[in-house]
Amino acid sequence: MRESSADVLSYLANSGISLGTELEVVETAPFGMITCKVRTTEKPLSLPTDVATDIYVSRPAEPAENEHRQYNEA
Length: 74
What we know:
- Keywords: Iron.
- GO terms for molecular function: transition metal ion binding.
- It holds the Pfam family FeoA.
- InterPro entries: Fe-transptr_FeoA-like, FeoA_core_dom, Transcriptional_repressor_C.
- By secondary structure, the protein is of the alpha+beta class.
- Helices cover 18% and strands 24% of the residues.
- It is built from two helices and three strands.
- The protein has helices spanning 6-14, 49-52, and strands at 23-28, 33-38, 43-48.
- Strand 1 (23-28) and strand 2 form a beta hairpin.
- It starts with 5 loop residues before the first helix and ends in a 22-residue tail after the last helix.
- The mean pLDDT is 79.
């Protein structure tokens, strides 16, 4: 996460987003909202584009056969 206000960081934490949290983008609205599914809560979360673009992401590591999926932290 880039530098953000304490309010934004608190909102993300209360929404279940922290370092290593898996998100899936499910919709990008034409008016600037990005809806993600947060794996820890399974609930959709809509974020303004300017907040969403401050979240660093990486693709999950490919799981080896018979291993649990591991994720790269951004």
